[in-house]
Amino acid sequence: MHKNARLLLVFFSIVLIFSGCTRKQGPSPAGGGGVTASQSDWDRDIIPDSQLGDDWGLGADGLELRGDSDGIRDGMFNGREMVKGVLPSVYFGFDSSSISASERSKLQQAADHLQANPSDGLLIEGHCDWHGTAEYNLALGDRRAQSAADYLGTLGISSSRIHKLSKGDLEATPGLSKSQAAEDRRADLIILK
């Protein structure tokens, strides 16, 4: 009987340990604090809410103040005219920065344009839907822009012609379901003249 009690105790201990390890928490709503368990290895890149102000953006070198430092003013980016709508946006899956096979032709189109117009540059704006914290979405928008830039690099486009900017969820429509918010999960490709 003593042996059966020990086996039963070991069994319940294992069940309790593994049931605590498999639980995942979904994304927190916009404006919520903290980092969710579903964010996996990106957790270490996030700065806690207590260290951020309300007006922060994510650049290639980390967090920086958003505003004049993002380079956009009066339809210009760092003194170059922004031409929107010529190149299509690249769309991403929920909580993903991977470029799907169906979206790669859009980046090929951007590469073709840049090769045909050697004086043009490209601004890649990473966007997210409203799900998740503002800080997480800024980081995700940055990863989406970087992913598009990396793919353009494989197509022979010099990184010196590409600029990246994360908009996070700044332009997202709040309250939409994950499927309705698919249009917000994108990287906009903006030509710089």
Defining key terms:
28% helix; two-stranded antiparallel sheet; 9 strands; 60s Ribosomal Protein L30, Chain: A; 7-stranded mixed β-sheet; 20% strand
Structure explained in plain terms:
This protein has helices at residues 2-21, 104-116, 134-154, and strands at residues 56-59, 62-65, 72-73, 76-77, 80-83, 90-91, 121-127, 162-168, 186-192. By secondary structure, it is an alpha+beta fold. It has a single domain (40-192), classed as OmpA-like domain (60s Ribosomal Protein L30, Chain: A, 2-Layer Sandwich), CATH 3.30.1330.60. The strands form 2 sheets. Strands 3, 4, 5, 6, 7, 8 and 9 form a 7-stranded mixed sheet that branches. Strand 1 (56-59) and strand 2 (62-65) form a beta hairpin. The chain is elongated. The N and C termini lie far apart (82 Å).
Tell me the distance between the termini. Answer: 82 Å
Look at the structure and give the mean pLDDT: 78
| CATH superfamily heading | OmpA-like domain
Strand-and-helix sequence, N→C?
HEEEEEEHEHEE
Major beta sheet summary = 7 strands, mixed
Compute the number of helices.
3
Radius of gyration: 21 Å
What is the overall silhouette? Answer: elongated
Got a strand count? 9
Unreliable spans are 21-68
> In what range is the share of β-strand residues?
15-25%
Q: What would CATH call the class?
A: Alpha Beta
Helix content: 25-40%
